[in-house]
Amino acid sequence: MDGPREGAGPVTGSYPGHAARARRLILEYLPVVDCVVEVLDARIPVSSRHPEMPGLVRGKPLVIALNKADLADPDATRAWASAYREAGQPAWPVQSRRGTGFGPLRHSVGRLSRVTLEREAARGRRPRPPRIVVVGIPNVGKSSLLNRLLGRARARTGGVPGITRGPQWIRAGELEVLDMPGVLWPQPADGERAVRLALTGALAAGTYDSLEVARWLVRWLRGRAPGALPAESWTAGGELPPDCDAVLGAMARRWRFVGAGGLPDVGRAAERLILEFRAGRLGRLTLDDPPAGGHPTA
Ligand SMILES: Nc1nc2c(ncn2[C@@H]2O[C@H](COP(=O)(O)OP(=O)(O)OP(=O)(O)O)[C@@H](O)[C@H]2O)c(=O)[nH]1
Ligand SMILES: [Mg+2]
Prior knowledge:
By secondary structure, the protein is α/β, with parallel strands linked by helices. Helix content is 35%, strand content 11%. It has eight helices and seven strands, in the order αββαβαβαβββαααα. Helix 6 (210-224) packs across helix 8 (266-278) and helix 7 (244-254) crosses helix 8. The protein binds guanosine-5'-triphosphate and magnesium ion.
């Protein structure tokens, strides 16, 4: 049986010019924040980490939010969160779309920020709420998490340019949040990490080969969770076709995706399979295996 392949390289990735600017802005504002919240995708708790983290935040307290926990395997999420915490890195599962899991996250941020605040108070400075900034790779849910943290005091938006004239602090209950979600580009990403980033939607469309990514997913599902493959993958006799292209072909036929010469349009089936995965319609799946020894291998 064909298992997930090591070192598959269907993804080229991209490094937009403004990525460097976003990174510079994060570094510029770092000295004035008390705590950084790094948003990860709970389906890929290592692959969605920026390769430079935690070094990039230069010793500032860091709290990890394992977001989109509703889409990930709950046991794996619990194992990942504990593994990070056992390694000394606070990490809490959250669902920014539904707004759940924010109690422990806020508590952690408050506790870690207290060190700086108490030092300031000892020097006679006026008390102030902890200041935080939210960072993470594209599409992990930074804005959703920020808006959950802000509650009703939403970040200002508008249809005309110039509404946000620069990063600004927004007071949200016990916190002050910097309205500048830091986008960290997931470069360098290659092999399996890139495939996982493509699957969860962190890479821009057109920067990866969806057929190769879907093939990887079929192989992975076949090895790990065959029951999660769409019903359209199986033959009437309850068998899975012998290789991943045949599985995608079966899906294309059942979904009536017809390509050139009347053949099944495997490329369209690949795209649909990726969308089914992203929407959670294949079930709650975690693509990064929790570490056996308990320590994340970031
Ligand atoms: N299922 C689920 N979807 C979520 C969750 N949080 C965010 N999303 C969805 O993920 C997508 C991206 O969310 P955003 O908050 O825009 O992510 P972002 O990191 O700010 O994205 P960029 O600004 O493009 O980098 C949106 O469709 C959200 O609705 C969650 O907890 N669960
Ligand atoms: Mg955003």
